[in-house]
Amino acid sequence: MKTNILLPTDFSDNAWSAIVYALKLYANESCVFYFLHTIDNEALYKRSLVTDYFLEALEEGATKDLLELKEQTITSNANEKHEFEVILSAEKIEVAIKNSIEAYAIDMVIMGTKGASKNEKLFFGSNTVRVLNKVKACPLLIVPDEFDFVEPSQIAFPTDYNRFYNGEEIEVLRNLTELYDSKIRVVHIEEEKKLNEVQRYNINALDEYLNQVEHSFHWMPNYAKKASVINDFIAELDIHILAMVNYKHSFIERVMNEPVLKKISFHPSIPFLVIPE
To answer: 8: which strand partners?
Structure first.
């Protein structure tokens, strides 16, 4: 059975970096990679002097670029386990991704942190933020710009243990560990002196869910903002992928709603897996 991977691209270096990471991450798996490029016609029509001829030329150019990207990838990848398809959409990026997930039974979306406009002050690019906020039907792996692939032997999974994780959420983690026999490092930032009854139940349930995967539980003191503590944990244990569940009032949602300047401390230094609720 093939794994279906969606690769949104704006043909930037950052998008290509995410594509290369995806190809290496799934090097030993049978996959179909779908290159998705979007032309937001609604936004274009709001501009003056946009003609049907202009739109047609734009779509022809984008199709040509997609096919060239496909050929470039086949040439550089040369992996008989991998197949490639192209998708051109006239929808907004988040809508195009939602439609593609449904139409092609996508198992994972992999994209860069930013597109062509690399604004170093921003947490993620605007497209990535919109996708994080709107796309809830599929795991999303966000790859930092120019990140060199490292076999993910260590995956960090931060949690406060206040929420019960279901089997589907943990299955995403387990599937990822199977690619390279990775270890899961569950990390909890101590905001309380001891766990309450709900937290104790959830940690035991999580331990049971992960019983077939090598995993360990870690405790970090609450000495700084969560983003800083998580970044320190990543550095101390040489973590290769950071994984979180995106649920209501989660750390991810709180960061997304912070003013832009406060988001600088959470620049992801490693690939960031966002698991939908």
So the answer is: 36
CATH fold match for the domains 3-143 and 154-272: yes
Domain ranges of the chain: 3-143, 154-272
Burial status of residue 246 (CB atoms within 10 A of its CB: 0-12, 13-18, 19 or more): buried
Element (H, E) at 169: helix 167-180
Q: For residues 205 and 202, what is the distance between their CA atoms, to the nearest angstrom?
A: 5
Class of domain 154-272: alpha beta
For the record, the structure tokens of 9 come out as 């691209």
Backbone φ and ψ for 80, nearest 5 degrees, come out as -70, -15
Question: How many other C-beta atoms are found inside a 10 Å radius of the C-beta of residue 170?
Answer: 20
Q: Is the Cβ–Cβ distance between 23 and 33 less than 8 Å? A: yes
- At the second CATH level, the architecture of 3-143 is 3-Layer(aba) Sandwich (3.40)
Rounded CA Rg of the chain: 20
Report the distance separating Cα 71 and Cα 185, nearest Å. 38
Within a 10 A sphere around the Cβ of 117, how many other Cβ atoms?
12
Q: Are 199 and 163 a contacting pair, CB within 8 Å?
A: no
* Tens-digit pLDDT profile for residues 6-42: 999 999 888 999 999 999 999 999 999 999 999 865 5
Alpha-carbon distance of 219 to 233, in angstroms, equals 10
Closest CA to 96 of 138, 146, 131: 131
pTM above 0.85, yes or no: yes
